[in-house]
Amino acid sequence: GVPRQGSTHEPRLSYEPRTPDASWTGEAHVAAVFGDSRINRYFYEVAPQYASAARPAYQADSGRMLVRAGLAGSHRLNPDVRLFGYVRYESYAGAANTGSPLMQREHGASAGVGFVWTFKRSAARAAL
């Protein structure tokens, strides 16, 4: 099986407007990400054997990892092609493990664009 590093939970509040024909979709959201002790140890803990003068030992705790806000949208060009994009801001300020020497930043941002191409469909459609 695939090794498990721990669990996260992400309560999220979102608004998702759509055009009547669903050719355009959008989303605005805010969320908080919480990690159990196992996932937070994986990202933020420094075991004593790996400590150095520049990276002191640190014992990670479970708790909030970050808060994020974002916008996303997509546009269906035809039945087989959809374009999409997103922007997202994340804040680590006040997170459970801000004292970790592995925590490098208080915030970050990301953006992306892409497309989905459906190259084959089954002859029979599922009943809704």
Describe the structure.
By secondary structure, the chain is mainly β. The chain has one domain. The protein is 6% helix and 44% strand. Strands 1, 2, 3, 4, 5 and 6 form a 6-stranded antiparallel sheet that branches. The radius of gyration is 20 Å and the shape is elongated.
Q: Strand tally, please?
A: 6
Largest sheet: 6 strands, antiparallel
SSE string, helices as H and strands as E:
EEEHEEE
Structural class: mainly beta
Features:
128 residues, six-stranded antiparallel sheet, 6% helix
Question: In terms of topology, how is this protein built?
Answer:
Elements: E1 8-9, E2 12-15, E3 24-35, H1 37-44, E4 63-78, E5 81-91, E6 107-117
In a few lines, what is going on in this structure?
This protein has 128 residues and is mainly β. The chain is 6% helix and 44% strand. It has one helix spanning 37-44, and strands at 8-9, 12-15, 24-35, 63-78, 81-91, 107-117.
